[in-house]
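Record type: monomer structure entry
Structure origin: computed from sequence
Chain ID: A
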Amino acid sequence: MVDRTIRGPGEATDDPDLHERSVQAADKVADPDRLLPGEEPATSNLEDIDHWLSVYSELLGLKERLVDTTERAASELDEGDAQTEVAATDLTLLEGERRRLWKRLRYWQRRKREAEREAQREAGR
């Protein structure tokens, strides 16, 4: 587990790799076509497809809760500049991720329908 101990204002952690991990995470979030490790889009294996449907459903649910929580928290901020910062950074990243997850979930839903049709054709031969 990563050390996320809050030590004081501006001191979230003494992790020397935090900046590099932050840059890498931002790059990942910025890629709307990013796949998860082990994700094989061409698979026809229904168990694999169901796995990715489950993974993306869970991730999307989490991201939607994070967006809702962040929007509520931002609306409670007193300073307009603080609200603007949250909207320009946090919410922008969360919305981008939510959009990507929806896209991947829809992909796997279509892939499942295709794989089921393929399996039915094979069974009918």
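Annotation 1: The first helix runs from residue 18 to 30.
Annotation 2: The two ends are 51 Å apart (CA to CA).
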